[in-house]
């Protein structure tokens, strides 16, 4: 990066990071260059052996009152796979793929990996980054949509990790925009839906795509209270908040991009709910929708996991095991479309998201496939707050 770029950075950084609490109108897209010196790949983390499972689940559920019963149930999913979540291996692969893409493009930025809930922890990653001389990080979180769990919690944990390491004021952490509608994230689902529909017609040559097949776009359910607070309050997304609106918009884009999907019925469905039964979460549940498929004349479903970036536990267990079992019980054909993983379009899209921040690409020149995007670089005040836990400080957004 040039000297000129370095100079411009400080101006942009000050403006964003020192936004006054009253500044609800700070920039949505940072249109000045920033000289980032490393990429922070931030993820969830997962256990890597039987002895990690309970400590990991305690980290995840700290302060949240998730009943032990449910913890045991989740532990069981992990135990089934030897106590190993696939997520860390996937992040190692993603890190290597990002490094290869950066090298291909001649961009000299190291990728530092840190997790919210398991080793390598964010705090350790930040300590190492600082010791290596890095000061200005651009974070990519492995989660595409707006909600507490998928956006704000990362921003809060960045702030907490800076406090824990005493690196407040030493390290800047910005975050790329939520990328639910970035062409690189959407492309693998478009390819997957096309292939999934082809698989259904090959296996069932007589099937009528417009009456007997349903596309189920699936994502992680969240408490309706969190959903309602997802995205900036000012935008009035209604009950499901920005979270649900973003998923609907992406589903529409994917449907419209696949010729063979024309006229095929589709729904947005939810999976992997937890919490007490008394607490409302987004519905319908994917398994209920599959169970009712035969009475609706549906003989096959194509499951498109638009809520997920890789085949982690929610995909491996809740879809490939549970939802497929629901399909067998209902006597219908189920096909599950791949997640982006390390798809070249996705990996190069993530690098594009970093570059638009380095360059300071104006919002009007940013790629986005829905009317909702390009999403904010700098989250709005109160964006995606947790409805139950209340306020915790967060980076990469306007105060408070
Ligand atoms: C929206 C969302 C994503 C983003 C989608 C994405 O980024 O993919 C996500 C990702 C993940 N969630 C994961 C694991 C867990 N999430 C939990 C709990 C919860 N998640 C929630 C939501 C989300 N979670 C919510 C609202 C809760 C309840 C908390 C509360 O009540 O406040 C629990 C606790 C036990 C339980 O409740 O199930 C676990 C173990 C893993 C790792 C998987 C692996 O190991 O491969 C990943 C990537
Ligand atoms: Fe989760």
UniProtKB/TrEMBL annotation:
Transmembrane portions of the chain: none
Q: Which organism is it from?
A: Cnuibacter physcomitrellae
Q: What is this protein called?
A: Coproporphyrin III ferrochelatase
**Purpose of the protein:** Involved in coproporphyrin-dependent heme b biosynthesis. Catalyzes the insertion of ferrous iron into coproporphyrin III to form Fe-coproporphyrin III.
Family under the similarity heading:
Belongs to the ferrochelatase family.
One GO CC annotation: cytoplasm
Taxonomic lineage from the root: Bacteria, Bacillati, Actinomycetota, Actinomycetes, Micrococcales
Source taxon at top rank = Bacteria
Locations listed in the record? Cytoplasm
Q: Name one GO molecular function term.
A: ferrochelatase activity
Q: What gene is it encoded by?
A: cpfC
Q: Which residues bind Fe(2+)?
A: 220, 314
Q: Which InterPro entries match?
A: Ferrochelatase (IPR001015), Ferrochelatase_C (IPR033644), Ferrochelatase_N (IPR033659)
- Is Iron a UniProt keyword of this protein? yes
Q: What is its EC number?
A: 4.99.1.9
Give the catalysed reaction(s), semicolon-separated.
Fe-coproporphyrin III + 2 H(+) = coproporphyrin III + Fe(2+)
CDD domains noted in UniProt: Ferrochelatase_C, Ferrochelatase_N
């Amino acid at each position: 990066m040039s000297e000129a770029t370095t100079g411009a950075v400080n101006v942009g950084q000050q403006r964003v990071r020192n936004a006054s609490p009253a500044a609800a109108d700070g920039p949505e897209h940072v249109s000045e260059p920033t000289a980032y010196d490393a990429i922070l790949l931030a993820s969830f983390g997962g256990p890597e052996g039987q002895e990690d499972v309970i400590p990991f689940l305690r980290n995840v559920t700290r302060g949240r009152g998730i009943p032990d019963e449910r913890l045991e149930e989740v532990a069981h999913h992990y135990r089934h796979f030897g106590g190993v979540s696939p997520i860390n291996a996937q992040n190692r692969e993603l890190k290597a793929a990002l490094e290869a893409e950066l090298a291909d493009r001649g961009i000299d930025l190291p990728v530092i990996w840190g997790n919210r809930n398991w080793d390598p922890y964010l705090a350790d990653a930040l300590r190492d980054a600082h010791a290596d001389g890095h000061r200005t990080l651009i974070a990519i979180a492995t989660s595409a949509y707006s909600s507490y769990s998928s956006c704000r919690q990362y921003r809060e944990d960045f702030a907490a990790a800076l406090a824990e390491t005493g690196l407040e004021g030493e390290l800047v952490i910005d975050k790329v925009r939520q990328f639910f509608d970035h062409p690189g994230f959407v492309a693998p689902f478009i390819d997957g839906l096309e292939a999934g529909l082809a698989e259904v017609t090959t296996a069932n040559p007589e099937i009528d795509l417009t009456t007997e097949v349903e596309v189920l776009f699936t994502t992680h359910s969240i408490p309706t209270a969190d959903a309602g607070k997802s995205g900036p309050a000012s935008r009035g997304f209604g009950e499901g908040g920005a979270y649900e609106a973003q998923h609907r918009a992406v589903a529409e884009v994917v449907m419209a991009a696949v010729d063979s999907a024309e006229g095929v019925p589709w729904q947005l469905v939810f999976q992997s709910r937890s919490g007490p039964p008394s607490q409302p979460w987004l519905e319908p549940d994917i398994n209920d929708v599959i169970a009712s498929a035969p009475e609706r004349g549906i003989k096959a479903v194509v499951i498109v996991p638009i809520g997920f970036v890789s085949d982690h536990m929610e995909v491996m267990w809740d879809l490939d095991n549970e939802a497929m079992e629901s399909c067998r019980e209902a006597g219908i054909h189920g096909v599950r479309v791949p997640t982006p993983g390390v798809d070249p379009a996705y990996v190069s899209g993530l690098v594009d998201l970093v570059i638009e921040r380095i360059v300071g690409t104006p919002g009007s020149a940013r790629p986005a496939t829905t009317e909702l995007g390009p999403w904010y670089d700098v989250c709005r005040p109160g964006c995606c707050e947790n409805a139950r836990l209340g306020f915790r400080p967060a980076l990469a957004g306007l105060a408070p």
